[in-house]
Design brief:
single chain, alpha/beta, Rossmann fold, Arc Repressor Mutant, subunit A, 2 domains, five-stranded parallel β-sheet, two-stranded antiparallel ribbon, 7 strands, 49% helix, globular
Length: 229
């Protein structure tokens, strides 16, 4: 089966810098598994085009005129729930991290990432996984620590988790991938995927990133890092 007969990942680029968009477009066009369905120079245009083009993955800059990346992500996810948004960022833009995640972003990608990392990021979020490395997870938790906890520590959703599911959630909160969790728990990858799916379903969150946020807000993990159940 060739790329033309398979489902190609529909992608969209959102950045107010035309040179950046052109560079990203060249990278995406080099992969037959991807289809670039739209570009936008600001958040407002991005939302309108996403509604029409129905992208699978959106690469979204944060700082743009008219509507910034956080507001655009929130509106886009509300109108195209199936879309996965990856925020294009720099370490200097840490203040946007939690806001973007709360808006529904599925992860972050540094603007200086290599073409290989960019493509891998698209495949990752298109497959339903969050794009959040251990280092970025730590930064997210650090940012959350600076903000008030919004939910009580005894959130009933946590009570729905089995001991193994809670353990998986803690490992996810460390930023571990499914394959790394396999090594930590000595189980099959299909078992890990099943646990992760059930955790997300029971917590009522869209992906791993938002499971990490909820785990912090519920008191399961703290500034010192995840704690054992």
């Amino acid at each position: 089966m060739n790329a033309s007969s398979e489902h190609r990942i529909r992608t969209m680029l959102v950045d107010d810098d035309e040179i950046v968009r052109r560079g990203l477009a060249l990278i995406l066009s080099s992969d037959a598994r991807l289809e670039l369905v739209g570009e936008a120079h600001d958040g407002d245009v991005a939302v309108r085009r996403a509604v029409h083009q129905r992208p699978d993955v959106v690469l979204m800059d944060v700082r743009m005129p008219t509507m910034d990346g956080i507001a655009a992500t929130r509106e886009l996810i509300a109108r195209v729930p199936s879309a996965k948004v990856v925020i294009l960022t720099t370490f200097e833009e840490d203040e946007y991290v939690v806001g973007a995640l709360r808006a529904g972003a599925s992860g972050f990608l540094l603007k200086r990432s290599s073409p290989e990392e960019l493509l891998r990021a698209i495949y990752t979020v298109a497959a339903g996984d969050a794009l959040l490395s251990p280092s970025v997870t730590r930064r997210v938790i650090d940012r959350l620590v600076e903000q008030p906890v919004l939910r009580p520590a005894n959130d009933p959703r946590l009570d729905e988790l089995t001991p193994r599911e809670r353990e998986v959630l803690l490992l996810v909160a460390h930023g571990l991938s499914n394959r790394e969790i396999v090594g930590a728990l000595s189980v099959e990858e299909t078992t890990v995927k099943s646990h992760v799916r059930r955790v997300l379903m029971k917590l009522g969150v869209r992906d791993r990133v938002h499971a990490v946020i909820l785990a912090y807000e519920c008191g399961l993990i703290s500034a010192g890092g995840p704690t054992r159940p």
